[in-house]
Amino acid sequence: MVSAINGFLNFIFTFYRNLRIRNKMILLIGGVVLICVLPLSIIVLYRNQNLMTLKTFEVCRNLAHNISNLATEELLIDETYDATRTALSRLKENEISSLTDVYVVNVDGYYVAEYENHGRVGKKAPEYELKYIKGLHSMDLIESKNSSGRNVLKFTYPIFITQRNENMRVGAAVFEFDKEEVYLPVNQIRATIFAVGGILFIIGIGIAFYSAVEFSKPIRKLAEGAKLIGSGNLNHRIELTGKDELGQLANRFNQMTERIQDFTQNLEHMVEQRTDELNRTLKEVQALKIAQDGDYYLTSLLLEPLQPNNNRSQNVHTDFLIDQKKKFKFRNWEAQIGGDICITDSLFLRNKEYTVFINGDAMGKSIQGAGGALVFGAVFNAGLIRSKLARNPNSYPETWLKERFLDLQNVFLSFDGSMYISVCMGLIENETGVMYYINAEHPFSVLYRDGKASFLENELALRKLGMPGQEDHFSVRIFQLMQGDLVFVGSDGRDDILVKNLEGEETVQEDETLFLKTVEKAEGQIETVREITRKQGVLIDDLSLLRIQFDGPQKTIAVPYSSDLEDSIRRGYRLLEKGKTDEVIAIIDNYMSKFKDLPSLLHLSGVAFLAKKDYERAIACFEELVTLDPTNGDAIFQLSKSHAALGDWDKAADAAERLFLREPHNLKNLKNLAEIYLESGILPRADFMIKKAVEIYPDDKEALVLYKKIKEAWESEIDSKAKTEISESEMRSVILRADQHYSNKEYRKAIQEYLKALGMDDDHAWVLFRLANCYYFTQKTEECIRYFNRSIAVSPKNYHARNNLGSVYFHLGDYDKAREQWMRALQIKPDFKTAQKNLDKLNDIMDQGVLS
């Protein structure tokens, strides 16, 4: 049913929408008139009909009431009905309009009086009428037909008499009115309403037709004009002179047609003109594009030699691929450009061969990133070449990484935040597979071993290069590679993949372990890793991957061959705790010839010799242990302690600094370094180490005592300076004469005076320093070096003496010693520009290949 109604309504709406505007207006206005007239006519008609019925009812009620007053007593006695009949005769004489009959029936159902003489008096009324009368309690109206078949309105009024507070029925009076005569005024009103409504409807239809014609005529003209213009007749104009909305629309339509006609007539010329403009613009853009691609291409040419794979190791194999986001074509060459860079090479440090590897990701895309990669590659390769050209490179791997880090960090700091680069950089000892590396906010390195991939790091220790304050957080990670191990290093392009989620929206994947799964699925093959990564989604960043494979001999460390040896080593440590070093050394001598490469035995030997104060043999044991196991941090610590016990502060500091680069929070080593620098007189470095120890371990008593001791040394040095000034006042005249000769470049006379002053104070640092300078200017090199060393021994923090001594070594051709003295001067005073300038000069000479 509902669907049928909806279908009918849709049909009506569709029919109405498809009508012309004129027909719609006729239908709409006609409907409005019909809706207004018809309901009003019906309402008026029925209100008048009800009013007529009500009035007739009231008349009958009054007549019946009067007649019942006259007939009540006669009906009760039921003898004669003269009064009743007389009343009916007078009623007839009054000739009441439309009254056709009146009669009275007693309680027994007999007619006792009537309006017309129909011969019913004394007869009994029909049963259906008697039954109807008995059921009435008040006057009632029904429509029926009389004996002649006419429609009448029949009013029946029951007559009651009250006796003993009870109503007793005694009869009924019946009045019949001619229905047509009663409703004759109503019918006349109805005819009048219908006539007037019809006339109004016709007038409304006429108005609707006229309005529709008048309103649709301009619309029809607009439609016909639009049709002609649309067919191509642009000369046609719509002739509407009115100022109403339709006239304004026609005027705008004509203006638009004129413009279209003018545009059409001049279209060819305009197209040619616009085409020429576009061609010129396109040529300019193409010229700019060619120039830009040329810049890109030249930059890519500069980058190419800066990212070589020069590793030639038989044990460590390296492969890398770089897939930059920005690809371009310049003339006949296709190239790419971006901020990712990979470098591998070989390097000898301390007579050991290392594989150098680095993977960087400079900030920015295309030319910006390429600029950062270009700077990075140039600086790193320059440092690499300097290291190769050094005659005797004696840097430890940790130190070498620190130097390269500082080189790069200082350069990128100069960009003042406009360029950063993340980097993973390291060295792998080709023989043992020990990997030394740093990770500066680069994606975690991945180890692939036995078919499983895992991250080598779980947190970042360094921020990107170029971020301030990274120098104090520098540390080197150590990892022992096993035979067959693969290490993957890559830029964040390996994770920045655009994928579609369940809703079909594109988003960057957030699974941190996705690359691990990719490496496992690719079984460690670098090309397969790239193919799988590309299939996972759309790459939105530069992608670079570096693969390192260690195929060296499996590192084996000798193990005890018998439980007796193990028990002996454990017993040796127990004896050391009791101070019985001689017995421990006897045990060592018993096994050393057969198990000299056993790390646990070497460690026990070194500790025993250190306890016995046989420092040289202790040093030999710990050096051998570090050679066998470079990852053993405790062996490096004990080596530093052994050198310190011999008073070889430089070597002690070198070993401890090496451990510090690995374990910057090692409390024992921090305290060891503080003591070494305190004894060496390098108080700034000692202060730095002890403050770091106290900062990390504020409750360590030994650190607090050492902190107090270093503080007192500072104060003592200040007092010593004051005393020196007092003592110098006694020989001021001698030194003043010497300084005067020195200023006048009378170096030989100055030497005589300085030697006289030195006789008064054999450890006068200033006199020793000036004497060394005088011997330098008089070309007495041996004396010069001797007095510079004496000056440094008296005042270890005299960075001027170290700088001048470095210059002496430089002129003698001993560049390693020159570099060492200049670096120590900078270590004492980092902002010492003269030493830095000399060091830069040496580096530049090495970069230019002057030294061989």
From TrEMBL:
Q: What does the entry give for GO biological process?
A: signal transduction
Q: Which InterPro entries match?
A: HAMP_dom, PPM-type-like_dom_sf, PPM-type_phosphatase-like_dom, TPR-like_helical_dom_sf, TPR_rpt, Ycf3
Q: Which residues cross the membrane?
A: 25-46, 193-213
The record's section on SUPFAM superfamilies has: HAMP domain-like, TPR-like
Keywords of the record? Coiled coil, Membrane, Repeat, TPR repeat, Transmembrane, Transmembrane helix
A cellular component annotation (GO) from this entry: membrane
Q: Which domain of life is it from?
A: Bacteria
Q: Which residue range or ranges hold the HAMP domain?
A: 216-265
The TPR repeats lie at: 599-632, 765-798, 799-832
Q: Report the coiled-coil segments.
A: 246-273
Q: Can you name this protein?
A: HAMP domain-containing protein
Q: Which species is the source of this protein?
A: Leptospira perolatii
